[in-house]
User: Which sequence fits this backbone?
């Protein structure tokens, strides 16, 4: 099976702009979670989608949003970009939603905000 | 609140020695504990996980132990090899709310010297 894929892999944006990142889960997986990875804060949970519904949300401002489509592909959007949003954004897919199900990560999108 | 503390932040061992990384979690409802290995520039890879109904799990040179009373779990790598050099992350999640939100530790950079 193909693994989790993310596009684009690299992105450079300017403060104030918005950005959309895409994640395609492993075939058959219905849950997609998003994480932000930075050197200072480590890996932090953004949100999780399952069956096109947001199941849980981390402690991020409302500028961070996401959605999931009927084919389980997910997108996350960051509006009004700030310098501090520069990070590696990782998505992870899981068969179903739930703590006991393994999550497999994509390669990430490296976002740089200038 | 939910928190996972991971120690040490860096660990240097000689090839062939053992390495131990420890994590402590704050939420007693946590019941799933995965470990991820992240090589430089690559995605986090799930290497082993343990659920709260077992105390120990082993997979070749890697083992994880869980002490629910003390709320801590550890990763043990025996007969380390240079290719084990990477950043290792522990994580915890719980079935309450039936979501897959992972709370990560800050990571341990393991260096295995040939």
Assistant:
């Amino acid at each position: 099976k193909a693994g989790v894929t993310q596009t684009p892999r690299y992105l450079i944006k300017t403060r104030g702009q918005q950005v959309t990142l895409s994640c395609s889960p492993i075939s058959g997986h219905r849950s997609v979670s998003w994480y932000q990875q930075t050197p200072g804060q480590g890996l932090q949970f953004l949100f999780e989608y399952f069956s096109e519904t947001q199941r849980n949300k981390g402690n991020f401002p409302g500028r961070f949003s996401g959605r999931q489509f009927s084919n389980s592909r997910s997108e996350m959007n960051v509006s009004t970009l700030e310098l501090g949003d520069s990070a590696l954004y990782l998505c992870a897919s899981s068969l179903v939603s739930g703590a006991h199900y393994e999550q497999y990560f994509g390669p990430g999108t490296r976002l740089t905000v200038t | 609140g939910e928190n996972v503390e991971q120690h040490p932040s860096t660990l240097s061992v000689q090839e062939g020695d053992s390495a131990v990384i420890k994590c402590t979690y704050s939420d007693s409802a946590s019941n799933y504990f995965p470990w991820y290995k992240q090589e430089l520039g690559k995605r986090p890879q799930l290497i082993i996980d343990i659920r709260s109904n077992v105390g120990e799990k082993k997979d070749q040179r890697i083992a994880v132990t869980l002490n629910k009373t003390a709320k801590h779990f550890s990763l043990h790598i025996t007969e380390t090899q240079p290719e084990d050099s990477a950043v290792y992350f522990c994580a915890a999640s719980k079935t309450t709310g039936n979501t897959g939100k992972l709370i990560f530790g800050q990571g341990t950079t393991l260096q295995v010297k040939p």
